Amino acid sequence: MSDPLLYSVEDGLARLTLNRPERLNAFDDALAYAWADATADATARPDVKAIVVDAAGPAFCAGGDVLAMASGIGSARALEELAHVISRGILSLTESSVPVVAAAHGTTAGGGLGILLASDYAIVGQNSKIGSRYASMGLTPDLSVTAQLARAVGERRALQLVLQERLLPAEEALDWGLVAEVVEPDRVQARAVEVAREWIAGAAGAYGQAKRLVRAGTRRPFADAVADEAASIGAAFDTPEAQARIAAFAAAATRR
After folding, report:
1. Both 98 and 25 in a single domain?
2. Can you give the C-alpha Rg of the chain in angstroms?
3. Would you tell me the crossing angle of helices 155-162 and 145-153 to the nearest 10 degrees?
């Protein structure tokens, strides 16, 4: 039996691959706990400068495994606990200072939308489709969908997704601001790695802190946000990376 999630770290890049292609990467217990463990490890490691979340098979993520719900979960309490486990992984990503790119090829639905929203930069294929679709199972959104969707696309558009069974085509998801790029279907994962490598090759620490500031800014008073910005830019100024880049910029400016 293959691992439900593939996890690797190489040259500053952590890669998490949902690996239940026969179930469209829907979450069961095994994937949930593997996801929570891998995201916690990736965001805690000082050598990780960027994270890619992608998936095996024809789809990114269909959310929760409905067949497992019907046959194996057994109770409302067990389903609630499983949602908490997966959400731990979402919190690890969104509260970290590591930028995350999602390669969401194929269909993303249900809780898979929460996984996509946990990324800071989402790439989809031209044939990708994205939706909520909880109500078709008589369920309500979880995995941060209601907590993050309205912030991403606005309340009215969020309501359109959660109150209809529609799947947004890729270009409409781009127009809404739900995703950052639409590429050829066979380029989704490669492009995600390219974006992550660009972060790593650039001012990786600054990108990570910028991500953290934006994410945290929606959850706290304005005065706290601007104070954190001031402290962060001061700390960044003292890093060798910033000193080298500032000196290079000044040298180039004097030559003009």
Report:
1. yes
2. 19
3. 130
